[in-house]
Design goal:
With 317 residues, the chain is of the alpha/beta class. The protein contains 12 helices and 8 strands. Helix content is 42%, strand content 13%. Strands 1, 2, 3, 4, 5, 6, 7 and 8 form an 8-stranded mixed sheet that branches. The relative contact order is 0.17.
Length: 317
């Protein structure tokens, strides 16, 4: 035994989670899927992390560009109905089309923490003591419950809950709070100076959250402001590690196209996956990221055959 506690922090962000999903694929392909003591995750990053603990991470990565790049999942014409996103459809894919082995996640020696925002307490809960398949599924649904895109709140263990990133934009903070000495942080936003002003959608989300629970929107706005400074710190520590605890952030390069939270273009989604895989590969193998820009390193999507029997076997695993 040693005194090190190695954490993996996985950011989500709706469809932008394809980036961290591809980074996890690269970690698995490099043989590092057992390198972490615990995983901290939020939103679509939590679903990615659960699949990562299942293994065969390339298989569920295809969910983003095969299954979610459709108006069945995201349709802004449903905004007045409070249902821009259809989480029921997304979890039909997770449960039955490309099944997640919930029991395998619960039994994994690598503990998964899923960030959930508890509405009435106005705080982030890093849930890890899952009692059943249904309990883990409820945590993943709650963590992915994006404000504005979905009306109302999710129910988690009898409490109102929303997206785990509302008050804690990046789960690396949860890793540090839990005593990790070293954290590998997977970011889905590209390396660039953070925006200095709230966007129109963020201002709308603040008002929406305050209507759900007075003070929740204010907490969301304050979290965004803190995260601006945190992004600068994370980017600086890519080259200047600083003092313990140590955090290494991996993020898409500034010139790579950014995947939007509600992206529907399969080509752009696949491009985000390529970029995420490439930067993680370069980090693990010690390669100069400039090799990506000049075309010397290129991630190629894997093709395989999946039958209905394969899906049924995964459900039973």
């Amino acid at each position: 035994m040693d005194d090190l506690k190695i954490g993996l922090a996985v950011e989500g962000g709706g469809i932008r989670g394809v980036v961290s999903a591809a980074m996890l694929c690269a970690l698995e392909d490099c043989g590092l899927n057992q390198a972490f003591d615990t995983i901290y995750s939020a939103s679509s990053g939590a679903i990615n992390s659960a699949y990562f603990l299942n293994g065969e991470t390339w298989y569920p990565l295809s969910i983003y560009y095969d299954d979610l790049a459709t108006r069945t999942f995201v349709d802004f014409r449903r905004v007045l109905r409070g249902r821009i996103m259809d989480l029921d459809y997304a979890f039909e894919v997770v449960d039955n089309v490309k099944p997640l082995g919930y029991e395998k996640v619960i039994a994994s020696p690598t503990r998964l923490h899923v960030a959930v925002t508890l509405v009435d307490d106005i705080r982030t809960e890093a849930v890890t003591d899952f009692t059943s398949r249904a309990d883990l599924r409820a945590a993943l649904v709650a963590s992915a419950w994006l404000p504005v895109a979905l009306r109302g709140t999710a129910d988690f263990r009898g409490s109102r809950a929303v997206d785990g990133g509302v008050l804690t934009p990046h789960p690396y903070k949860l890793a540090l709070a839990d005593g990790c000495t070293h954290v590998l942080s997977l970011s889905t936003r590209p390396i660039q100076p953070p925006a200095q002003k709230l966007s129109v959608s963020q201002r709308w989300a603040i008002r929406h959250l305050d209507r759900i629970r007075d003070g929740l929107g204010r907490g969301y706005g304050e979290a965004i402001e803190r995260y601006r400074d945190e992004r600068v710190m994370l980017q600086r520590r890519m080259t200047e590690p600083g003092d313990a605890p140590y955090v290494l952030d991996i993020a898409p390069l500034s010139w790579m196209p950014q995947v939007k939270r509600h992206e529907l273009d399969p080509g752009r989604i696949l491009g985000g996956a390529r970029g995420g895989y490439e930067v993680m590969y370069c980090a693990v193998e010690g390669k100069d990221p400039a090799l990506i820009k000049n075309g010397r390193i290129r991630a190629v999507p894997q093709l395989t055959i999946v039958t209905k029997d394969d899906a049924n076997n995964r459900q039973r695993a």
